[in-house]
Structures are given as structure tokens and as C-alpha cells.
Amino acid sequence: MKIVFMGTPQFAVPSLNKLIEAGCDIAAVITQPDRKSGRGHKIMPPPVKTAAISSGIPVLQFERIKTEQGVLALKEIEPDIIITAAFGQILSKEILELPPLGCINVHASLLPKYRGAAPIQWAIINGETKSGVTIMYMDEGLDTGDIISFADIDIDENMTGGELYEKLAISGADLLADTLKDIENGTAKAIKQNEDESSYYPPLSKELGCIDWTKSAKQIYNLIRALSPVMSAYSNIDGEIIKIWSSSVIDGSASPGEIVSADEKRGLVVGTGKELLRIEIMQMPGGKRLKPEDYLRGKKLPGELFR
Questions:
Q1: What is the rounded CA–CA span in Å between residue 272 and residue 261?
Q2: Cα(169)–Cα(181) distance, rounded to whole angstroms?
Q3: DSSP 78-100
Q4: How is residue 146 annotated by DSSP?
Q5: Are 208 and 303 a contacting pair, CB within 8 Å?
Q6: For the purposes of burial, counting CB atoms within 10 Å of the CB of 291, is it exposed (0-12), middle (13-18) or buried (19 or more)?
Q7: Alpha helix locations (H) across the chain?
Q8: What percent of the chain has a predicted confidence (pLDDT) above 90?
Q9: Structure pTM?
Q10: Are residues 254 and 261 in contact, defined by beta-carbon separation less than 8 angstroms?
């Protein structure tokens, strides 16, 4: 069975490695172009490209795989199946119909819930206690294809988006290996998604991280842990953006955004719509990530309210 694997970020690497370990015939890996990354804005290859090259697998990179050049490259390979995992591009109908065994995707949610590009973070933002991975046949819709298999994972109340990301990446790789065997021997079953249970959430945006202090402390806590470490939640105080990387919920009440304490002894505690939020790790503009107690040693915050 000749495979073309499409993926880009670290999430897809365990799936690719699992196929390599299983001795699968991976004819090519297709990924996004190299991008600028980090403070130095160096051009960096996608993690999937690095993993493929280290195993001697040919790598093709396309800004848009559904261009004439991309489709021609796939036709020349003649794959039996195309596998995608966090590829970041939508496949055209022409590509979907190209491999005889179809195109399958490793999606980081229990479909039909949490369709879209950021299901891991949105599940935590919404306070879900369970998530999972789904292997599905791809169609022209966004994560709407028939389900082949799934595996669920419990979300601990302290789990960050990064931690869930790692767990789902590994779970998805294991599930992919088992599912591929079923597809190859013809025992895989496809189940249509229940549209009545479907939900879609948009990609992550900088605006999403802006804290609304009128929400409950638990809601804000979920936002902060969901976005860590990909991006931070943040708030504005006297024109300065303070990034918040870790927090906890404590009993008490105060006006939303009101600073209840901000000193070396008591730490940084802020009022919310319900209960109080203790900020555990913060980052001032141009500074390092610090415990508020360390920052506040001999200093004061520039204002008395977060907005």
C-alpha cells in the first residue's frame, strides 16, 4: 500500500513516525513551506519535514497542494491512500478522488464535535472533561467525512493545551496504525457523522487571548491553560499588556479586573465575575516569565485595574 503523508506541525510527527516504524511504504511526505519562526525570525522547516528527512523520505512542499503543480505531483506518485494530520490545507475534490483507498485524516476531537483548526484549545476553553481523536474519511466539507475509528482521552482539570496536544498526538498515531490495518484488509467500517451533534470552532487568534474579567474565574482559568504554551492569555493595565501563563481559582469576590493584592507576600490576585483569580506566572512587556511575587519584589504594578 503506497502512502502519501501530509502534515505540518509537531502533532503530525508521532503519526508519521508510527507509519515509519511499521514499515509502511511512504512514497512522499507533503508539508507546508518553511516559515520564519521565533524572535530571530529564522526560516525553519516544519517538524514533519525534519522527521521525514531524518528517515530518508522524499519531501514536497506546497503553499497550496490543490494547484495544478501539486495535483500533478500526486498523480505521478499514484498513492493508494493519502493520510493527513494537521496539514493545514483543504484538499480539492480532484485530490480526494485520486487514491483508490481514499483520503483519511487524523482529527484531534471526537467528531462531529469540535470541527475546525483548533479543537484541542477550544475543548479546554469550554471546560470539557473529555476529548479524543477521530480517524475519518475526508470529503469536501470541513471535518464532515465518515468516521472510521475514534479513541477518547480524559481532560484533567489542570491540563494545559500543550499537554492535551501531546497526549492526542500519541493517541492519534496509535489509532492511525490500527485503523490503517483495517483499511488494508477491507474490514474498516465508515459511519456517517450526526449533524445534529456537530459543532465548529474557529482558528486561534490573538484577540481570543484577551481576558474578559467579567467572566468567572474558572472560565478565565480555562482560557489561560488552554492557550499555554502556544500563545498566552493577556490583559491590559494602564496601556501595558501583561501576559498571563498560569493561574488558579480562589474563593472571594471583588469587582471584575480589580487588583485585590499585588505584593511579594500575598501575590497577585484579581477580581472576576465570580470568585478570584490568582496569577501564578506572568510576563511584563519585554521581560521574562516570572512568579508575580518575584516581579513585585520592590516594585509596583502601574495601575490598580486590569481591563
A1: 13
A2: 19
A3: --SEEEEES--SPPPHHHHTSST
A4: P
A5: no
A6: middle
A7: 13-21, 47-54, 68-77, 93-96, 119-125, 161-185, 217-227, 292-295
A8: 89
A9: 0.95
A10: no
Residues 217, 274 contacting (CB under 8 angstroms): yes
The C-alpha atoms of residue 30 and residue 8 are separated, in whole angstroms, by 8
**Whole-angstrom distance, CA of residue 227 vs CA of residue 233:** 7
CA angle (188, 190, 194) in 5-degree steps: 155
Q: What is the pLDDT of residues 132-159, one digit of tens each?
A: 999 999 999 999 999 999 999 999 999 9
Q: Are 256 and 228 in contact (CB under 8 A)?
A: no
Task: Give every strand in the sheet of 2-7, ordered side by side.
Answer: 59-61, 25-31, 2-7, 81-85, 103-107, 130-137, 147-154
Is 66:95 a contact under the CB 8 Å cutoff?
Answer: yes
Report which of 275, 124, 101 is spatially closest to residue 201, judged by C-alpha positions. Answer: 124
Backbone phi, then psi, for 175, in 5-degree steps? -65, -40
Rg of the Cα atoms in the chain: 22
